[in-house]
Amino acid sequence: MSELVLPGDSLGIHDGVPVILGPGVSCDPMTQEVIPVNAGVRHYIEKKNTVYVDYNAKRYIPAVGDLVIGTIVSTFADSYKVSLSDFSASVSLSYMSFPNATKKNRPTLQVGDLVYARVLTAEKELEAEIECMDSVTGVHAGFGLLENGMVISVPLSFARTLLFNDTFPLLSTLAQSCQFEIAIGINGRIWVSTDKIENTLACYRSLNLCAKTNDSSKFKQIIKEQFKLAANVIEE
Amino acid sequence: MGIQTGYLDQVDGSAHYKTDTTALLCSVTGPIEPKPRQELPTRMALEVIVRPALGVPLTREVEIQDKLNSILGSIIVVHRYPRQLCQITFQILESGEDPHLFDSKELVACVNAATLALIDAGIAMNSLAIGCVIAVLPESDGKHIIDPTDEQLRNAISVHSLVLQLVDGSKVVNNVLLLDSYGDFTEKILFEVLELGEKYILNKAQDFRKLIQERIEASILK
Amino acid sequence: MAKDIVISNSEREFILESLRAKQRLDGRNFDEFRDVSIVFGNEYGDVLVSLGGTKVHCRISCEVTLPYEDRPFEGLFLISTEFTPMAGGQFENGNSTGEDEVLIARIIEKAVRRSGALDVEGLCIVAGSKCWAIRADVHFLDCDGGFIDASCIAVMAALMHFKKPDITVQGHSVVVHPVEEREPVPLGILHVPICVTFSFFNPQDSETNFKGQDNLEIVVTDATLKEELLREGVLTVTLNKNREVVQVSKAGGLPMDALTLMDCCHKAYEITDKVTSQIIAAIKQDYAQRDRYAAVLSSENARDATA
């Protein structure tokens, strides 16, 4: 059940039944009325009694559990300041949020390094916190420093689709052209790394172009062209 | 009327708004980290900047900025972003009126452009703000001019800028966000103007919705 | 510029690594200028120039005023460049005191105003008492690098496109004829300066003195925003179609030798030539669209006044 809604529209949920509010929906503190606050496609999950609006944007707002890619901007006595998008308020990454961290055993990240992390807390009044381990089990869980490679900035909805939609054909198409490592941040950043510079370059350009077209049937063509182009130039 | 959203790459949201006589660009960046002096503890701070097409900003631009600040402050859900900042910048490209005498057309065009740019940027809003300018001409007898030309503005007995807050499918007027009137007019004329403006704005809102809908549909991945 | 944009070590290394492999992120060649588009508005002297993703708008306006006392035979010409966050969050409203902001403003000023591109003597109406004041307002809309180059094109295109109202002088009184009454007159343009910016990268690590035996610095034409953030030296050459070097600006950064400079000037000339022709063609096309009936209504004889 989905339809297009704009800010201020009626959500069409029955009064008196409590619902869980997802992204893009807000409860007016004065009137207690539930309204959509963003323009996008309305979704209602009956099983979980949850309503949300799927909308696209360029700027990321931290939400708990999101997988993000950040850049270290400064170091403090017990934490790093990390930037998730340019000009946004930075988030903090504690030295203790790394696997096997102790008071003595500190992480050795430098300013400018990229990290793959998960949002631990996100309160609108406070600075958000991210972590580089699974804090429930204390294990590694694939987070941490992203070495070399290249970062691509994409619209948030593109990053979400790439991460959550397993049938989205981009990654499988890309895999036919080369081997690569990828990390997808919900904050609209994608990190890719391959063993050859021309392949990374081709991945970078392909992802950039694919993020601009919304037609997945064109992906194959784009990727093919970019790999051909990059390979040719390097040979020359 | 030519409107294009997402016109600029570097900012979070933008709209290129063009009517027959007035053209302007609106950009929105936010929520971002404010400078300490801008920060507000319970709500989002708005930095509204209006740049004229010619010359430097004067008191006229500051007045437009102030009016925009209060209009946009009431449609943005400001309490969702405490201690954050939203930069809303307007660059007038073509004024369409004599800047020494009037500011109505620019103000209303700014409001319409801002509504679209804020949606493009994904800033939380509780309603849409849409406006129009209405001029009452001497020979009009009850037929007032919507979106008048510069010449009509000069000849008008009174000029009214009207901005309405629309909710519920943009079919219901929730509030009057701005009613700025210059010149001589009676209570009857003012009500005529309000009635005419409401009809026109509700129509315009449907055009806006269509535009936003097309934009959203185009951005859905296939 | 761009104090707050965070660029990660991975991006920095990858961009430099690509440059070493003779590759740019956007697939351009090192000496390739981005595509220029020139669009005119309704009024004379209203132009929007895009250079790749960079967008600059320029408006020209004029008024009759008092000339400077020490220059009674000259009109006034002012270029105003102000930044707003519209171009990107790194720019602060009304704060034009940053190093890069000042540099952009001064280079445009030097390239256009001080090189005498506009015939200021032609703006004189009555010596010592009345003259035209021409004002160019440059609005920076979208920043993807190359603001100097784009705004120089915008100012020149707008000046060439602009027409001021015709005037009649009777003794000390001046009559300004409205546009509806008499065909307005274009400004006197003496030459068309075009800026081309080159960025330099050091392919070795910063310790290596690459000015010794091997001369390996990488020269890139018309850098994008990311390239601008990483570059280690910058050179702006301003030329016109007559192969005259109007200005060379190199404020610090990597040292360079004379041959590189010559080479850059040659490359810049080709770009200047192309861009100048494009501006002229765009204006011609716009004028033709404006007065579609001019050919029918004209009483001009075969001796073409514009030739």
Task: Please write out the topology.
The complex is a heterotrimer of chains A (236), B (222) and C (307).
Chain A lengths: L1 E4 L14 E2 L3 E3 L6 E3 L3 E6 L4 E5 L12 E9 L3 E5 L7 E4 L19 E8 L7 E3 L12 E3 L3 E4 L2 H9 L5 H8 L3 E5 L3 E5 L3 H16 L6 H17 L1
Parallel strand pairs in A: 2-6, 9-11
Antiparallel strand pairs in A: 1-5, 3-4, 5-6, 7-8, 7-10, 8-9, 10-11, 10-12, 13-15, 14-15
Chain B lengths: L1 E4 L7 E6 L4 E10 L12 E7 L7 H17 L9 E10 L9 H18 L6 E9 L8 E2 L3 H6 L2 E10 L4 E12 L3 H33 L3
Helix pairs in contact in B: 1-2
Chain C lengths: L8 H12 L15 E5 L5 E6 L2 E12 L10 E7 L16 H15 L10 E3 L3 E13 L4 H15 L1 E2 L2 E4 L2 E4 L8 E2 L7 E8 L16 E4 L3 H6 L2 E7 L5 E5 L8 H33 L3 H4 L10
Parallel strand pairs in C: 4-6
Antiparallel strand pairs in C: 1-2, 2-3, 3-6, 5-6, 7-10, 8-9, 11-12, 11-13, 13-14
Mean pLDDT, all residues of chain A: 89
Count helical runs of chain A.
4
The proportion of residues in beta strands of chain B is 25-35%
The CATH homologous superfamily of the largest domain in chain A is called K Homology domain, type 1
Give the number of domains of chain B.
Answer: 1
Strand order of the largest sheet of chain B: 1-2-3-5-4
> SSE string of chain B, helix = H, strand = E?
EEEEHEHEEHEEH
Oligomer: heterotrimer
The low-confidence parts of chain A are none
The structure class of chain A reads alpha+beta
Overall shape of chain B: globular
How would you state the average pLDDT of chain B, rounded?
92
Give structural notes.
The complex is a heterotrimer of chains A (236), B (222) and C (307). Chain A has three domains: 3-54, OB fold (Dihydrolipoamide Acetyltransferase, E2P) (Beta Barrel), CATH 2.40.50; 66-146, OB fold (Dihydrolipoamide Acetyltransferase, E2P) (Beta Barrel), CATH 2.40.50; 150-233, Ribosomal Protein S8, Chain: A, domain 1 (2-Layer Sandwich). Chain A has 236 residues and is of the alpha+beta class. Chain A is flat, with a radius of gyration of 20 Å. The termini of chain A are far apart. The longest helix of chain A has 17 residues, at 219-235. Chain A contains four helices and 15 strands. Chain B is of the alpha+beta class and 222 residues long. Chain B has one domain: Ribosomal Protein S5, domain 2 (2-Layer Sandwich). Chain B contains four helices and nine strands. In chain B, the strands form two sheets. In chain B, strands 1-2-3-5-4 form a five-stranded mixed sheet, covered by helices on one side. In chain B, strand 1 and strand 2 (13-18) form a beta hairpin. In chain B, helix 1 packs across helix 2. The longest helix of chain B has 33 residues, at 187-219. The mean pLDDT of chain B is 92. Chain C has 307 residues and is of the alpha+beta class. Chain C has one domain (19-289): GHMP Kinase, N-terminal domain (Ribosomal Protein S5, domain 2, 2-Layer Sandwich). In chain C, 28% of the residues lie in helices and 27% in strands. Chain C has helices at residues 9-20, 99-113, 147-161, 225-230, 258-290, 294-297; strands at residues 36-40, 46-51, 54-65, 76-82, 124-126, 130-142, 163-164, 167-170, 173-176, 185-186, 194-201, 218-221, 233-239, 245-249. In chain C, strands 1, 2, 3, 4, 5 and 6 form a six-stranded mixed sheet that branches. A four-stranded antiparallel sheet of chain C has the order 12-11-13-14. In chain C, strands 7-10 form a two-stranded antiparallel sheet. In chain C, strand 8 and strand 9 form a beta hairpin. In chain C, helix 2 packs parallel to helix 3 (147-161) and helix 3 packs parallel to helix 5 (258-290). The model of chain C has no long low-confidence stretch (mean pLDDT 88). The chains are: A alpha+beta (236), B alpha+beta (222), C alpha+beta (307). Chain A binds chain B through residues 4, 6-10, 24, 26, 28-29, 35, 37-41, 55-59, 61, 87-90, 124-125, 155, 157-158, 161, 168, 214-217, and chain B through 12-13, 29-33, 75, 77, 79-84, 119, 121-122, 124-128, 166-170, 174, 209, 212-213, 216-222. Chain B: One of its GO terms (biological process) is nuclear polyadenylation-dependent rRNA catabolic process. Chain B: Keywords: Exosome, Nucleus, rRNA processing.
